C-alpha cells in the first residue's frame, strides 16, 4: 500500500510533464485542426534553453523556466509563420508533413549544435525528501507537480476570462464566423502557438531537472506519449489534455508497479489504440459535426 | 539518352580506374615509409593489416589500437623483426562502416598481401571481416570485440579481449562472496542486446555464487524516467544493484536512487558503464559505482609497467588504454605464433596461435581455450572515486 502511494506520486509527476506538452497539441488542434508534431522538439528546445541558462548564467529554476518559456513561445510563433501559415488553406496532409519536417529539422539542428550525447542538469536544489503520512515526496516532484498545476490553472483562467481567450474559443468554434466578428485570426493562431509552445518549453525544463537528462531526441518519445494523452483526453479539449497526461503517466508507473516494466512504453500506446477504437472523441471530447 | 548514359559510364570508369591506380600506390604510404610493394619474396617485409575506424563515432577505438600496434611494430623491428623479416603495417580506415570494411579487408588480403589483420575493435565489423579473412585463409585478430559469434566463424578468426563470460562471473564472485552483498536487484535494458546478454551471464553467476535476485527490473536505452523502477527496488531492500546496460542510464538510475534516499547502496556493472559521461551526468550519485575492465594502467605487472613507460615516452606522457594495450598484445601474439611455427604462412601459424597458453601480455595473461575464445586474467575491477575510474581490485581468473 505504501509503495502504491509512492508510485502514485511518481506517476503524478511524470503525468504532469505529459500533460503540459499535451496542452500544446490540443490547443493548436482545437484552433486550426493541425497536429503539430514538432511539439516534442519544442519541448526539447525548452530543456536546452533552461540548461544553457542554468549552466552559463547560473540561473535558478524560475529564471530558467521563464527564459525557456519566452524562447520556445517565440520559436513556436516563428515555426507557425514559416512552416504552417503558408499551408493553412491547403490540404491537412501538407501541414502534417510540414510538421514532421520541422520536427526532424529541429532535432538534427540540436545534434549539430550540442552533439548527440545526454547532458546532465546542474543541481538547482538540494536533494530533499518530505515525509507525508507514510509516503515520501522529493523536492523535485513537488516542484514539477506544483509548477505544472499553476501553469494549467493559469491557462484555464486565461482562456476563460480574457479577451484573447474568448477570441481563441470563438476561433476554435468557427474560424470564418469569428473572423467576420472582427477576430484577427492570424493573431489568435500566433498567440495559441506561443502559449502552447511556451508550455512545452516549461515542460522541457521541468523534465530536464527531474530526469537530469537532456538530449536532442528526448522530444520524440515524450511528444508521442503527450499526443496519446491529448487523444485520450479528447483532442481539442484543454481539461481533457490535463487529465489525459496524468492518466498516461499514472498508467505507465502502475505498469512498473505490477512488475511489467518490460512493457512500460507499450501502455501509453495501448491506451491510444483502445481510445481510438472505443471512444474516438476521448474522455472530455465533444462529438463534433465535421466543419469542413 | 543512351549517348548520355554511355558518356556517364565512360566518366565513371575513368574515375574508377584512376582510383584503383591511386589506391594501389597509396595503400602502403599510410605507414609513412614508401617501401617497394614488389611481390613478397623471401626477404620482403611481413605485412600486417590494421582494420578499424580512424574517423567517425568509434574512431577513438581505432586510433588507440594503432598507437599500440605502432609500438609493437617498432619494438619488433628494433629486435630484428619476425624471423628476420621487418614488420610493416598497412593501416586503413573503415570509419566504422561495414561496406567500407569489406572493401578494405579484400584489398589488404588480395592487393597488399597481408598475412594477418588486426581489427576491427567492434564486434559487428569483425563478424563481416572475419568471414572474408577466414575464407581467404588469412588470420584476423580483433583487439576489442566482445560479442558472440566471432571466433565461431572459423579457425582463422581470433580475439584478445576480456569476455563478459569471463569477467561477469568473476565480478559477481567478488560482489557476493567477498563483499557479502547477497541480495541483488538486477536491471536490464531490454532494447540493448549487450545488456540482455550480459544480464543472462549475471543471473547465472549470481545463483552460482549463492546470491539471490530479490528484484528484477527492466528499462530501455533512452529512457529518462526511472522513478517507478527505483521505487520498486527500494521496497525490495537489496544489498547491491547490478545493471548490465550503458553509462548514461546508469548515471540517471543512480541519481534517482540517491534522490529517494538510498544513500549507501552501490551499482555494479560491466564495461558498458565506462564512459566519462557516467560522472558528468551522475556527479556525486555515481561515486562508488563498480565495473570491470580488461585493462588498467594502475598496479602494473613488470611487463605492463615496461609497456606503460615506453608508451608514455612515445606519446607525450599519455597513458595507454584498453585498446592500445590490446592492439599491442594482438601484434605480439601474432609475432609469437609466427616464431613458434617458424613460418609466416597463415595456414601454419594459425595453429600455433590457437595453442597460445599463459602468454604474458600487457593487458593480462592470455590463453586461447579449446573453443578458440581467449581467457584473460586478471579482471580489473574499477570503482568511481573522486569523479574518476580507479582500480579497486585485480581479480585473477582460473582456467577451466
Describe the structure.
- The complex is a heterodimer of chains A (292) and B (400).
- Chain A has 292 residues and is mostly helical.
- Chain A has a single domain, classed as ABC transporter involved in vitamin B12 uptake, BtuC (Orthogonal Bundle).
- Chain A contains 11 helices and 2 strands.
- Chain A has helices at 2-32, 39-57, 61-84, 92-114, 139-161, 163-173, 175-180, 185-211, 218-233, 238-257, 264-278, and strands at 129-132, 135-138.
- In chain A, helix 2 (39-57) packs antiparallel against helix 3 (61-84).
- The longest helix of chain A is centred in the first third of the chain and has 31 residues, at 2-32.
- Chain A is globular, with a radius of gyration of 19 Å.
- Chain A starts with a helix and ends in a 14-residue tail after the last helix.
- Chain B folds into 2 domains: 2-28 and 43-161 and 302-368, Rossmann fold, CATH 3.40.50.2300; 165-293 and 380-395, Rossmann fold, CATH 3.40.50.2300.
- Chain B has helices at 2-29, 59-78, 98-111, 123-135, 164-178, 193-208, 227-236, 247-259, 277-282, 302-314, 322-341, 346-354; strands at 46-52, 87-93, 116-119, 139-142, 157-159, 183-189, 212-219, 240-243, 267-269, 290-293, 359-361, 364-368, 374-377, 379-385, 388-395.
- In chain B, helix 11 (322-341) packs across helix 12 (346-354).
- Chain B starts with a helix and ends in a 5-residue tail after the last strand.
- The model of chain B is unreliable at 21-41 (pLDDT under 50).
- The interface between A and B is medium-sized, with 36 and 28 residues.
In short:
The complex is a heterodimer of chains A (292) and B (400). Chain A has 292 residues and is mainly alpha-helical.
Query: Percentage of helical residues of chain A?
Result: over 70%
Q: What is the succession of H and E elements of chain B?
A: HEHEHEHEEHEHEHEHEHEHHHEEEEE
Number of strands of chain A: 2
Residue stretches of chain A low in confidence (pLDDT < 50, at least 5 long) are none
Number of helices of chain A: 11
Shape descriptor of chain A reads globular
Question: Distance between the terminal alpha carbons of chain B, to the nearest Å?
Answer: 69 Å
Strand content of chain B: 15-25%
